[in-house]
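Supplementary notes for students who missed Thursday's class. We covered one full example, reproduced here. Read the sequence, then the structure, then the short commentary at the end.
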Amino acid sequence: MDVYTTEEQQVEAIKQWWRDNGKAVVLGAVIGLGGLYGWRYFQAEQETGREQASEAYTQVVNALAAGDEKAEEQAAAFISERQGEAYASLLSLQLAKSLVETNELVKAAEQLRMVQSSKDETLSAIASVRLARVEAELKNYDVALKELDKVTAQSWTAQVEELRGDIELRQGDTAAARSAYAASIAAASNPVVQMKLDNLPQ
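Structure (token representation):
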């Protein structure tokens, strides 16, 4: 490192360094600060968007629960605007439930099919199980059983097999129902399923 003997030489060296590097320093500072500001702005916008989505979701769910005449229309608009988002899938589940309560089973099935394509495996599994119930109510038993086959996570085995047993019993296949109920109990002991199994004709 050079040792400067006079103040003038030191000042001149600083000026020379600034001439050589000043633009890069300023540009680096501007880019750094701009990036930091941009990132903070992006995060704030994301947070605002999440809060707005949450508030809109809550309003539509409350409208559905209250039986508001325009609730279904509002829910459909929300789902359309936010396709692929978790809130849209959750609202589709709520809308399907509301449609089942008013016996609009075909419309409910449409909502549940939309949720099945969710990236969230839990939401997809919930939709498949509920869709199987709806299809069984529509007497589409084969379709209902195929929907249950889509749920492969072990945590769902007890519930899926119980529903499979119910559907098989509705079709009159007592042997298949017995097998399904036994599989359900093997996955998780449940007195209700045990009662269904015990009440099956021999």
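Commentary. The chain has a mean pLDDT of 82. Residues 9-152 form a domain with the Serine Threonine Protein Phosphatase 5, Tetratricopeptide repeat fold (CATH 1.25.40.10). If anything here is unclear, bring it to office hours.
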